[in-house]
Amino acid sequence: MSTTTTTPRKTRALPPLMTLSDAAAERLRRLYGSGEHGKLLRISVNTKGCSGLAYDMSWADEPGPGDEVVKDKDLTVLVDRKASLFLIGTTMDYEVKALESGFTFINPNEKGRCGCGESFHV
User: Fold this and answer.
1) In angstroms, what CA-CA distances link 84 with 7, 88, 108?
2) 35-47: pLDDT as tens digits
3) Range of the structural domain that residue 92 is part of
4) How many angstroms separate the CA atoms of 61 and 9, rounded?
């Protein structure tokens, strides 16, 4: 009689859903401490633009039933659960340029962007 034992295959840990750069954390702290005090930033992905998907940010009073709660650098950000597969491993950054400033996303899942940078596809 022969018995075969198999050892469980080790699963690879998933990267965090989202992380914040130091610049994004600093800007978010300022927003949370001033005009948006008591609110949370919610990040989602909507169908938009010539490449198909676009990042969308809004303010929420509290996490909703469809939100993933992301904590990084002692800050909380909400991610719409429907967007989580598009955002796994993404870093949110904050850039200041000569004529504009704002949050940007470094998303390893992106396969391309439209020419104007408004939308992306995976």
Assistant:
1) 31, 6, 13
2) 878 899 999 988 8
3) 27-108
4) 42
Cα separation of 31 and 17, whole Å?
Answer: 22
Cα–Cα distance, 56 to 83 (Å, whole number): 10
- Domain assignment present for residue 3? The answer is no
CATH code at position 91:
2.60.300.12
The Cα–Cα gap between 72 and 89 comes to 13
Domain count within the chain: 1
Q: Is residue 70 part of a domain?
A: yes
pTM for the model stands at 0.79
Nearest Cα to Cα of residue 103 among 113, 116, 90? 90
- pLDDT confidence of 77, banded at 50, 70, 90? very high
Q: What span, in angstroms and rounded, lies between the C-alpha atoms of 97 and 105? A: 15
Pick from 11, 74, 85, 99: which is nearest to 45 by CA? 85
In-domain check, residue 52: yes
Task: Give the number of other CB atoms < 10 A from CB of residue 118.
Answer: 13
The answer to whether residue 8 sits within a structural domain is no
